Structure formats: structure tokens, C-alpha cells
Amino acid sequence: EDFKQNKTALNVLFYTEKTMVAFSTLAEYGGARGPFDGDTTLVYNTLIANVGDAYSASTGVFTAPVAGVYCFILSYHAGGDHNAKLMLIKNSELIVATSDHKSNEPSDNGGNAAVLELKKGDQVYVRMAAGTRVWADGGYHTTFSGFLVSQMRELTPEK
């Protein structure tokens, strides 16, 4: 009988401790974004999903609600007549970038991804480099997405 109660308690704890976090955003309309004089955080104008409400549609910033391993993906579409460069930033630190130089091509596409270990409250966002441009159009190419792969327990320092 004790075994059954302990097993039930463990099952309840296991299944209720799982936190779901996933978001996907799209720069769907508005035409050219940039070029700007300084690096600029991209705020995407269409929210596809925001499970866990960790992505702020008003600031473009994802804030980790729990410690864990997360995956982030970014992509862009840009006209070939301008440079394009997007950077994935974690707490003001450059993690990965994707870029393309001005060309004679009518359009260019790029992307990148990263798996990050985050603490609760860490922030991740996409910055567009100064003097570059991406497109927000009906082509559904300029996106930013992320999801929690595995939740981790944060250790608190002993006093």
C-alpha cells in the first residue's frame, strides 16, 4: 500500500513539474526594416504561438520562466541591394549571427540556431546590426522561434 501511495505521489510530482515553453514570431508586414543608425532589437509583428507567455510581443524579448536548456531559431529575408545581419543575443552577449553582403541578387535568405543553457530570468532576443536591412512581407521568411528542450533545477547556494 505504501509503495502505491509513493508511486502515485511521484507520478503527480513528475507530471505537474513539467513546464511548457514555446514561441514563434513572424515579421509579416511593414516592408523594409532598417537600415538604422545603431543596432536595433527586432520586434516581430505577428505572434504565431506563445506557450508559457515568455516572449514579449511589445519588446521582442524572450525571458526564461524556468532554468533549462532552450533551442532558438532565427531566419530572415532581405533584398540583395543591402547588407543583412541578425544576431541572437543572450543577456547582451552575442551568441550566433547570420548575415549576407550586398549583392546583385534580387533577394537573399539566411538563418541560424543555437541551443542555450538559461537561468530563470535570462533574456534572449534578435538584434539587427546597424546599417543593415531585412524584409517584413507576406513571404513568411523573417522569423524568431524558441522552445524549452529540458527543464533544469536551479541550485541555490548554501548559506
Automatic annotation (TrEMBL):
Compartments it resides in: Secreted
Gene Ontology CC terms: extracellular region
InterPro entries (alphabetical): C1q_dom, Cerebellin_Synaptic_Org, Tumour_necrosis_fac-like_dom
One Pfam family linked to the record: C1q
SMART domains xref list: C1Q
Top-level taxonomic group: Eukaryota
Cross-referenced Gene3D superfamilies: 2.60.120.40
PROSITE patterns for the chain: C1Q
The protein's name in its UniProt record: C1q domain-containing protein
Organism: Lates calcarifer
